[in-house]
Backbone:
């Protein structure tokens, strides 16, 4: 694993989160019945401990020189550096979209869309320059997505009696 | 003795055996799919048992339970999707082994270890259930707290890359575990008026997010990397049970089966941490602790044998005391009660043939589990021949449906996504995700029980050291912590 | 003209609602269970399901929405259309959730169709020769000046609230220790870590039959069929009656004609011998109640629970 500047950034993000949790914990009631611990005790203690350990980790990283070391670039990489980042964000966004559309569009349609878009995006991004997109393969992918989503829907709702979201047209 | 003979007659009829086998098969399928839990599989089959004689019905449900636990290790091994907390420890070594092209070997070890663990716990269940149940009853709030401290020490052992970062990850899990209605005073913590958070962060979205989704996100990045291939670059190895290899780790098998059975019998806490405890134990005993986490067979043997020994262990308090330890045994007990049989000490005296029939059915279910997996292993590994970009999309699809199916709550899907992103970065910067899960599981046990213990002692902390079981756990925790630190230090010095 | 239109409008609406009631049910009915599969409420619904389906002539789809200790499922039920195609299973938790103030619905947001099962609360204590019955328990506690440590199935659960109410009614110093579940509380009591539990009979019956816990008193109208030897509070001279119950409710605004169909269906379903066997083995008593009597029961039961739950919140 290559250490990058973002190691420091991630420490800072976690530190901010711990600080936020700590601040929220300050609003919790701190009195406890019968000599026991209060509801605020654990959140405060844990978020403080996280903050302290993160600071120690950052200091050690600074001393070892790993914390701020810059990214070692891959000379062998054939794809430009932005492609994996776009792919990562794309998949994450598609997942959010899938979750948002799951209930309004019903399971079958949203799942077919997700499968199609997810595979299509990865294929397009990983395409070698000059390679063309064949219509046949796109159709195959669309068919695959539709068949898989219908099959899974039937297995789960009929076989395992799990209620999945539907839009009420033809039982899907 | 007469009861046992009669019980044999109840089980060894072709239709009873058929039903047990069917239950095991369904359990395996549902267990292998992420999100479908053992409890759901049993609840699905429960109505079918109403019309069956008790031993036949319970046999089917026990088969489902064994199958579901074993099935969980298939998805944990091949896809890094732990369906239950108890298969998290399996992912630590089985998934790396499968990744380097030895999926057949990893599954082969899983099958044999889970069979042996299951059979061991069946023997213990039929011979030693009452004394173990009495031992489990000695666990009060102070003992549960000490047990959870013992579990938390494992964080040090699973965070091999950086101890401090591992501790941070464990604490993140503990902090997330405080979300929800606080268990003693009923105060809302970090819920922000969200109904889905009232009972806390659901464990399954966290598990699947931290392991499966984060792994796919990493795979997406690697997919565009320099060594891009459509299939795993290693040729697939031969897929079959690995009897000799597994048995050669007989020490690990024995200790993990014992730990699994005994810890599984402690209601509420055992199920989720038993396999972690065994894994940790195996690592401490091992001559090569540094290999753990990189696809080491001992790690798989430890986790899987204890994973299935937990099932027999969990049946002990359920059958002898009427106390179900977790969701799956609770449904099982519901099934028993609908049959008109109330579990508890009277079960042994009043319904001798039925209880022995249940024991025998549990043996039979374990044998079916072995046979079905033996044939199924060839089919399981085919999953890895699916082209990688399709596989990534399909895994994500299964994660979403599985997490949605738990509560039919879309919030859990968003939660899973959040955990997926968190898990990706935690792995990328060497914090690790296994400590987060340990924190999430043990946090509520630790907090609610220390608070209960202090309520009962009117604020006197000395209960933790005046009660023998609690004292032993705390002392052993301290000893283990020093041992792990020493082991880590020796490792790092020998490396440099 | 305007008036004519509105009369016409009202008439068509009435007609269409009558038509809706006449061909009810014409599609699947969703039964929201606000707890996970395999819980007490879920078992009841699944035991009722086959005979209800037969009586209604429609498929019932059980939907477990188990978030927030019932809060998610009940909120979803209240928010759905009162067309009879969404029903849920009300229990005392419906009221305690309101009292604890975490949910937006109140007990008046439901149309209660039927009460099907009741289960009293039972006070059961660990084995102790001085605690044979209510009299010996209270005289021993009063002489020793120690609190009675009672385990409940969760903070803010109805068992928690009933424990506090029992303490007041009996004049005992009861300290409630909330556990994560009923079975966790029972196991702590069996191990002697706490003095006893207040739970429903189905959760303690094994422990009592196994002679590890002693049942002291129940809170029902009548003795529980699961614990025929345990006296009720009324029998012991205390004016206190409160039971856990499980029934069927729809969101407010259900057409009376559809409600009547449901009542008929429930009346048939509770006669089913398979269901009766299941109810018996779950330790519950079949005690159906409909219409005004049911509304009175809801009123009588919900009031003290909501008040006491509000007091816990402080």
Residues:
């Amino acid at each position: 694993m290559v250490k990058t500047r973002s190691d420091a950034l991630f420490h800072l993000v976690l530190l901010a989160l711990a600080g936020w949790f700590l601040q929220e914990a300050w609003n919790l009631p701190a009195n406890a019945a019968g000599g026991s611990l209060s509801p605020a005790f654990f959140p405060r203690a844990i978020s403080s401990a996280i903050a302290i350990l993160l600071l120690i980790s950052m200091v050690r990283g600074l001393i070892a020189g790993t914390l701020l070391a810059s990214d070692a670039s891959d000379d062998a990489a054939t794809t430009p550096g932005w492609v994996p980042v776009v792919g990562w964000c794309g998949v994450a966004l598609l997942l959010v979209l899938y979750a948002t559309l799951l209930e309004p569009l019903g399971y079958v349609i949203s799942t077919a869309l997700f499968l199609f878009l997810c595979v299509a995006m990865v294929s397009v991004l990983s395409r070698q320059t000059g390679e063309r997109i064949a219509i046949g393969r796109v159709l195959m992918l669309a068919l695959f997505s539709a068949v898989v989503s219908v099959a899974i829907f039937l297995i789960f709702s009929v076989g395992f009696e799990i209620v999945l979201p539907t839009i009420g047209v033809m039982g899907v | 003795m007469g009861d046992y003979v009669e019980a044999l007659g109840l089980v060894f009829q072709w239709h009873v055996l058929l039903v047990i086998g069917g239950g095991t098969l369904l359990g395996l399928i549902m267990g292998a799919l992420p999100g479908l839990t053992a409890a759901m599989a049993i609840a699905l089959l429960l109505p079918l048992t109403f019309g069956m004689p008790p031993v036949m019905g319970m046999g089917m449900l026990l088969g489902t339970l064994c199958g579901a636990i074993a099935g969980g290790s298939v998805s944990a091994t091949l896809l890094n999707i732990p369906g239950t907390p108890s298969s998290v420890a399996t992912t630590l070594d089985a998934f790396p082994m499968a990744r380097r092209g030895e999926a057949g070997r990893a599954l082969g070890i899983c099958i044999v270890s889970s069979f042996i663990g299951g059979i061991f716990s069946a023997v213990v269940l039929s011979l030693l259930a009452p004394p173990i149940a009495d031992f489990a009853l000695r666990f009060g709030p102070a003992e549960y707290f000490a047990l959870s401290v013992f579990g938390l020490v494992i964080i040090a052992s699973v965070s091999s890359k950086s101890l401090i970062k591992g501790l941070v990850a464990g604490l993140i899990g503990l902090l997330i575990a405080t979300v929800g209605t606080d268990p003693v005073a009923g105060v809302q913590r970090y819920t922000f008026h969200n109904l889905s958070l009232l009972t806390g962060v659901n464990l399954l979205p966290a598990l699947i997010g931290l392991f499966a989704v984060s792994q796919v996100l990493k795979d997406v990045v690697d997919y565009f990397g320099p060594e891009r291939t459509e299939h795993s670059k290693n040729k697939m190895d031969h897929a079959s049970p690995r009897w000799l290899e597994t048995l050669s780790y007989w020490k690990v098998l024995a200790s993990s089966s014992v730990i699994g059975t005994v810890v599984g019998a402690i209601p509420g806490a055992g199920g989720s941490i038993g396999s972690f405890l065994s894994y940790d134990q195996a690592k401490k005993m091992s001559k090569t602790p540094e290999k753990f986490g990189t696809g080491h067979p001992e790690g798989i043997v430890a986790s899987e044998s204890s994973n299935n020994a937990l099932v027999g262990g969990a049946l002990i308090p359920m059958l002898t005391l009427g106390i179900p330890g977790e969701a799956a045994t609770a449904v099982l007990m519901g099934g028993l009660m609908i049959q008109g049989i109330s579990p508890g000490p009277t079960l042994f005296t009043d319904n001798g043939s039925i209880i022995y029939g249940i024991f025998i059915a549990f043996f039979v279910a374990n044998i079916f589990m072995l046979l079905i997996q033996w044939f199924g292993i060839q089919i399981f590994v085919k999953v890895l021949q699916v082209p990688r970009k399709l596989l990534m999309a399909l895994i994500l699809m299964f994660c979403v449906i599985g997490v949605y199916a738990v509560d039919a709550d879309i919030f859990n899907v968003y939660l899973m996504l959040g955990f997926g992103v968190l898990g990706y970065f935690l792995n990328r910067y060497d914090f690790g995700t296994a400590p987060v899960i340990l924190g999430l599981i043990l946090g509520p046990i630790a907090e609610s029980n220390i608070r209960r213990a202090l309520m009962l002692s009117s604020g006197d902390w000395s209960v933790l050291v005046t009660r023998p079981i609690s004292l032993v756990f705390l002392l052993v925790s301290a000893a283990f912590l020093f041992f792990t630190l020493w082991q880590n230090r020796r490792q790092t010095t020998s490396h440099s | 003209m305007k008036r004519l239109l509105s009369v016409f409008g009202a008439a068509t609406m009435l007609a269409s609602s009558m038509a809706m009631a006449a061909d009810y049910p014409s599609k699947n009915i969703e039964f929201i269970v606000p707890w996970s599969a395999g819980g007490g409420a879920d078992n009841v619904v699944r035991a009722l399901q086959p005979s209800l389906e037969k009586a209604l002539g429609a498929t019932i789809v059980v939907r477990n929405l188990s978030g927030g200790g019932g809060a998610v499922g009940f909120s979803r039920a209240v928010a759905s259309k009162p067309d009879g195609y969404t029903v849920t299973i009300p229990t005392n938790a419906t009221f305690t959730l309101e009292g604890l103030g975490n949910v937006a619905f109140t007990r008046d947001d439901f149309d209660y169709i039927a009460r099907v099962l009741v289960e009293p609360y039972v006070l059961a204590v660990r084995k102790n020769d001085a605690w044979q019955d209510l009299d010996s328990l209270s005289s021993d506690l009063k002489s020793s000046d120690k609190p009675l440590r009672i385990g409940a199935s969760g903070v803010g659960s109805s068992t928690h609230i009933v424990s506090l109410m029992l303490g007041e009614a009996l004049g005992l110093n009861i300290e409630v220790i909330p556990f994560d579940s009923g079975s966790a509380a029972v196991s702590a009591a069996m191990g002697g870590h706490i003095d006893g539990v207040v739970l429903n009979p189905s959760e303690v019956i094994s422990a009592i039959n196994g002679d590890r816990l002693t049942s002291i008193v129940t809170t029902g109208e009548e003795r529980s069929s699961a614990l025929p030897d345990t006296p009720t509070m009324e029998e012991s001279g205390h004016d206190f009656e409160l039971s856990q119950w499980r029934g069927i409710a729809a969101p407010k605004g259900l057409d009376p004609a559809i409600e009547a169909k449901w009542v008929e269906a429930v009346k048939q379903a509770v006669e089913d011998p398979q269901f009766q066997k299941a109810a018996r083995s779950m330790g519950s008593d079949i005690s159906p109640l409909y219409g005004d009597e049911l509304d009175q029961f809801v009123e009588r039961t919900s009031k003290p629970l909501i008040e006491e739950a509000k007091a816990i919140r402080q």
